[in-house]
Design a protein that fits this description.
Elements (H helix, E strand, L loop, with lengths): L2 H21 L27 H14 L22 H4 L1 H7 L1 H11 L6 H13 L4 H18 L4 H16 L17 E6 L6 H14 L4 E6 L4 H14 L3 E2 L7 H15 L3 E6 L7 H14 L7 E7 L4 H14 L3 E5 L9 H9 L3 E5 L7 E3 L2 H10 L2
Parallel strand pairs: 1-4, 1-5, 2-3, 2-4, 5-6, 6-7
Antiparallel strand pairs: 7-8
Helix pairs in contact: 4-15, 5-6, 6-7, 7-8, 8-15, 9-10, 11-12, 13-14
Amino acid sequence: MDYTIVAVVIFAVALLVFGGAFLIRPRRPQAPAEPGERPEGAAPSATAEPAEDEEAAAAADATAGASPAEAPPAAPEVETPPPSAGRLVRLRARLARSQNVFGQGLLSLLSADKLDDDSWEEIEDTLITADVGTTSAAQIVESLRTKVKVLGTRSPEEVRGLLRTELLAQLNPDLDRTVRTEGHSGTPSVLMVVGVNGTGKTTTSGKLARVLVGDGRSVVLGAADTFRAAAADQLETWGARVGAPVVRKDEGADPASVAYDAVSRGVADGADAVIIDTAGRLHTKVGLMDELGKVKRVIEKKSQVDEVLLVLDATTGQNGLRQARVFSEVVNVTGIVLTKLDGTAKGGIIIQVQRELGVPVKLVGLGEGPDDLAPFDPEAFVDAILDAA
């Protein structure tokens, strides 16, 4: 036998056996590809996006369910306050309630069947209790006593008419109560608001801005009360409501500097009026009062001061009169603002302040509402007192 042929046959058979086993070997399963990873050997997909796009998409997906960022707070809506004309008439009922004791007491005493010396003394005491002042009370009683004697009979209508005439005469309705806001020579009218602590100067400044805006005036507010940051914040709130810009500086800054900058802003803006809110100060403190005089002098380097409005609390009575005297000596007060008149039966302070200082009451506060500051009208005031009785 040819061993060569046998060897070749055996080699061929072995080759077939091992080769077939290799060819039919089961294929090892391939691990799934990671997201974004192309399997080895696979052709790139025609629709595959760059990695940057995938990151952007992932970021978009991550924020899709997130709550949107809070929008910045909206600016307060600018209000249009009512005009000053007729304000006191609209607030007449509130004034009548507060002065009910005053008016009712006087009318009931004057309507008594018999008016002897004791009766007239009681009438005078009622007037003094209402802060009319001793001199004015004596004058009113003397005039009434003469007229009652002449008339003889006293019907309720006659008594009311007599008392109305006397009270009006003491209030001096002919005084000029105009708040000067016309400006002059291209510069705004400047109004300083002064007074002791707690009388409501900052609130009065804000309400006065509303009165002027309601009358069609443009206003700039100066936060010259630099001792209290809260005062400037409060003034900004008032200004924002009527669209009046506020000039302020850091707490502790020079009040005169703030006032000067406010007037400068008013000139630059072409405003009709600049209202300067000053810090409260004790009328007995000479240094503080001198500082108030400095504020006025510095303002006058830029523009004249048209109004110095002294804010008095109507409930303080005689103390309010003492305050008025000192302030008038330092800054030449041109008008009085009486606050809290709705909460007291002592409206006679109006008569006494005007008599002692020769300065008219120009504005009265009759509540805590934003539009409860009204130009003072003597006739409406007296009628409110007597209608309440």
